[in-house]
Amino acid sequence: MPEQSYAPIVDGDFWQDAGPAEFVVTNPATGESLGRETECDTSAVGRIVESSKRAFQQPTWQKMSAAERGRMLLKLADLVEQNAEELVQTELQDTGKPVTQLRAGELPLTADIIRFYAGAADKIEGSIKSGTPGEVLMQMYEPYGVVAGVLPWNYPLVNAALKAAPAIATGNAIVLKPAQETPMGTLAFAKLCIEAGIPPGIVNVVLGSGSKTGQALIEHPDVSKISFTGSTAVGTHVQKTAANQMKMVNLECGGKNALIVFADADLERAAEAALLSGFVNAGQLCVSCSRVLVESSIAAEFETLLTQRASKIVMGNPQDETTLVGPMITRAQYDTALRYLDEALNSECRILAGGSAATMAAPCEHGNWIQPTLVSGVQPGMKVHDEEIFGPVLSVVHFADEAEAISIANSVSYGLSGSVWTRDGSRALRVSKALDTGICWVNTMLSGYPQISLSPHKLSGTGVELGMEGMRAYLKRKSIVIGIEDDAPVGWGLG
Ligand code: TAP
């Protein structure tokens, strides 16, 4: 059978000879090759951005009503659902994510995000302000033009929808750049955009490494806005690059989030949430809580609950419906997580569950497997506490009182999410307000999408994604002042 090749999408079609196809895309669960991916160089990226610019400037796109763009997005959401099983299998191969998490999580969320922005497309309102009697002051919104959507590998479909749906709803064109390891979901998504009637060129895809293709994309002068999701290190670089051309940037970056359990909480539910949060997608989820802060008076009881439940977690072939934990996406990510575990093993921490790489049976024996790991006795200042591991490693930290819980939670340089577990309503609100994070859940986790907006704090990013605010981030402001009286004074006292 000929080897599968992955090519960029321009003007609605695959561009087969866009560049050399040397990068091997692998299935992280089995280590098998899924095909080779083209790398777009600066000139190929230039051609693709040109196509996006042309598509944006087309009179048909410029004159299309917001309601019509919304209808196209509704069609796209329907197509995502109609092709759900194919998309599930694509993502399963490409990311190693367990099939149940794809069916119940990533696919429905992708469709929900698209529908949310479909409905929101014609709800953007400008304003008329009361100025002097001789003038009308108007404020309105306009699309940027060509937007770059730079995606991580952990949730390719959700992230493609998160960037493309608001971009389309607001009348922009978008060039998506998936992570080199996971091109398949983004390509499938872009093809469905064409099937939904979204004009060719409005959603293009470049393929290749971040340092070459991604860099060429964000530097392109016709790209007016960059929406980036990925690590803090790369996000910082993207922001610096964008500053050279004063481009608008949205950065959704790393997290080291805390789930805080007070003694009065429903401990069974809190334990369930902590494990789900720490181990879903093998811990490769930015908003997951990888630190569990537990009040000292119930710490022993809570750790027993965590350990008992962790022993029942099934890690294995992502195709199996009982699997909760799949593999790490790449060998590099696997090596990174093992380095953190080594450090924890060589410290005063106690391993309550897991603690090492896992040996798997065929067909998964060559995948990137790490046991779901619970580490107790973790303290601020330790790397396992302070740094984002992005693997199935849940750290347990004890605290004496509310003030200490807040101080530990806020001691890291990230500020993405948090979760507070208590039956005391005032304390829930007090602690939520005190956490320096973009979102805080109370007695729940990972819910509220796509209506809520996420605006990362500290080194977790800048700008806003999701919700209506997330859509306005794809629009620039324009003010128009009209003099309607011939004798109205001209501004600054000139008249
Ligand atoms: P990164 O290594 O930062 O990569 C993210 C994207 O940026 C990839 O497409 C990457 O391309 C590209 N890239 C790398 N260098 C670039 C450059 N110079 N110019 C333009 N693009 C460049 O992150 P990752 O490892 O894929 O994802 C994991 C990280 O994403 C974690 O830190 C996680 O917390 C974060 N994340 C955050 C969120 C939110 S909502 N805050 C959501 C998901 C993930 P290549 O990979 O092809 O080189």
From TrEMBL:
The active site is at residue 252. InterPro entries: Ald_DH/histidinol_DH, Ald_DH_C, Ald_DH_CS_GLU, Ald_DH_N, Aldehyde_DH_dom. It is an enzyme of class 1 (oxidoreductase). It comes from the Bacteria. Its EC number is 1.2.1.8. Keywords: Oxidoreductase. Pfam families: Aldedh (PF00171). Signal peptide: none annotated. One of its GO terms (molecular function) is betaine-aldehyde dehydrogenase (NAD+) activity. PROSITE patterns: ALDEHYDE_DEHYDR_GLU. This is NAD/NADP-dependent betaine aldehyde dehydrogenase.
